[in-house]
Write a structure and sequence with these properties.
mainly beta
Length: 176
């Protein structure tokens, strides 16, 4: 199935039907995924884990979480550094944070890897490295094209999209 995402709204392929929308909180990374009538389907957020003070800034202290309104965790993503920039192997860069380019996902008991190929191209790979979902920016027309090979619901696709945006956020230059 192919979908269009524009301004936080997921449309059917032809753009005629609104399926789901994403609403961001005013402050913080939490996103609500709502169905057409405005009822809450899922919540996506970044969870900060307990960590020693010397690990401050390390992405292994964060998880991306997709939860149902009942509180059940449907998906948990663990962000990972790019292979060529993993601090335990290559050390910490002097003038920037190491680049994050993927997250290991446990999605309803299935293992996936969400890979950021560049800031406009993401792919969700299954455990055999086959693409399950591809998310691509639509260029000058704006928005995103989402192609799903697997049977993900529209709400789940919005959760995956939120995780993509979280990965992108990890690579933003911090402003203090």
């Amino acid at each position: 199935m192919t979908y269009k995402m524009k301004a936080g709204i997921l449309y059917s392929q032809d753009g005629s039907q609104v399926l789901v929308r994403i609403r961001s909180k005013f402050c913080g990374p939490e996103k609500e995924i709502l169905d057409m009538d405005g009822s809450l389907l899922f919540t996506a957020d970044i969870r900060i884990l307990d960590y020693p003070p010397q690990w401050a800034g390390n992405i292994s202290c964060r998880e991306y979480v997709l939860t149902a309104p009942s509180g059940e965790e449907l998906a948990v993503g663990k962000p990972r550094y790019a292979d060529s920039e993993d601090p335990p192997i290559y050390g910490w860069p002097i003038c920037r944070m190491p680049r994050v380019d993927r997250a290991d996902l446990d999605f309803a008991g299935n293992a996936y890897t969400l890979v950021m190929r560049d800031s406009q191209n993401y792919v969700l790979l299954d455990n055999q490295a086959a693409p399950a979902v591809q998310i691509k920016h639509r260029g000058i027309t704006g928005g995103w094209a989402i192609e799903s090979v697997r049977d993900f619901s529209a709400g789940h696709l919005c959760g995956i999209f939120a995780f993509c945006r979280y990965i992108e956020r990890e690579n933003e230059f911090p402003v203090v």
